[in-house]
Design a protein that fits this description.
Length: 326
């Protein structure tokens, strides 16, 4: 990086890239210019810090790039919107090989291709360690946003995606990444670069019976459902039997761990939880896992869950988002 320089690097990582239709002006000027098809945007920002949210001995640069986009794109979809562009702030040490930054950029673009939108601009600076900050812009898929505050008593809680696999991948990596074992590679891949089911949210929001509340599960299922319960002024009850995952249970047995805890409190899978009105049937791909009642808070099988319910940004000392049991 020291030898190539900032502007040559920007030119290299943007060469041959094709901007999405919402980006009127991409990298190369003082600011990007994006259209706002509905006259408003959904905007989300999230960060990744080296040795706090990812480790180079665990993840390849392309994985970190994909993860940086996925966690932002998932937030946009959780608002009932679709990403149309991203700006990326990147801090890297000057000793960083250019090929590492290029591979990271490839990851950004690869996940943007899955989620929608393109990398419209950003900034690169010298930093003592890697710092990645992505801001995503999204156009609403419907006439209004889908927030956490729309759940009402009698509602049906459903989940899209497979919660617990990123936490399982963390456990595998923390154990020294055994090369054999049921589900090991699947779990490690889920931790390194989550694959949110964007298409299931898009289909649900644009379908005949859209959800009345949505949230992205990034800090843990119970933790994020707690935010939804608070925003809506309701109680959420989760049925653990509906969340059972035999493949995850097999891996947990191999590692002498608790699959139920991974599912309920593990974060970074970026699966989605949605609420439908009473009497509704969530669309294909969504699994009914509970219901909405009058009251407050989150219960599991009718009882309060004992112990931490998810990730806290200012707790924990281990890198790459530590296991919530610690």
């Amino acid at each position: 990086m020291r030898e190539l320089g900032e502007f040559a690097l920007i030119a290299r990582i943007n060469a041959g890239r094709e901007q999405g239709p919402a980006v009127q002006l991409g990298p190369g000027d003082d600011a990007a210019v994006l259209t706002a098809a509905r006259g408003r945007y959904a905007v989300s920002t999230d960060m990744l810090i080296e040795d706090r949210h990812f480790r180079w001995d665990w993840s390849a640069p392309v994985d970190v790039g994909r993860k940086a986009i996925a966690q932002n794109a998932a937030d946009i979809y959780a608002m009932g919107a679709e990403p149309v562009g991203y700006v990326v702030g990147l801090g890297v040490p000057d000793r960083t090989p250019v090929e590492v930054v290029t591979a990271f950029a490839d990851g950004l673009w690869a996940e943007a291709a899955r989620a929608g939108g393109s990398i419209a601009g950003g900034d690169i600076v010298r930093s003592p360690q890697w710092v990645v900050s992505v801001t995503a812009f999204g156009d609403p898929l419907g006439e209004s946003s889908v927030t956490r505050s729309g759940a009402r008593p009698g509602g049906i809680l459903a989940v899209a995606g497979r919660p617990g696999w990123s936490a399982a991948g963390y456990a595998v990596l923390a154990a020294g990444h055994p090369s054999t074992g049921p589900g090991v590679e699947t779990a490690v891949a889920a931790h390194r670069a989550p694959r949110p089911p964007y298409d299931l949210v898009r289909d649900a929001v644009t379908g005949a019976h859209p959800p009345v509340a949505l949230t992205d599960i990034s800090d843990g299922l119970l933790a994020d459902l707690g935010h939804l319960a608070e925003s809506s002024g309701v109680a959420v009850d989760v049925r653990s039997a509906a969340l059972r995952d035999p493949a995850l249970e097999e891996l947990a047995g191999f590692l002498e761990a608790d699959a139920r805890q991974w599912i309920l409190t593990g974060g970074e899978d970026h699966v989605f939880a949605g609420v439908w009105p009473a009497g509704s049937v969530p669309p294909p791909g969504w699994t009914v896992v509970g219901g909405i009642d009058a009251g407050s808070g989150v219960t599991v099988d009718g009882a309060r869950y004992s112990g931490p319910q998810g990730w806290e940004a200012f707790s924990g000392t281990d890198s790459a988002k530590p296991d919530h049991s610690r």
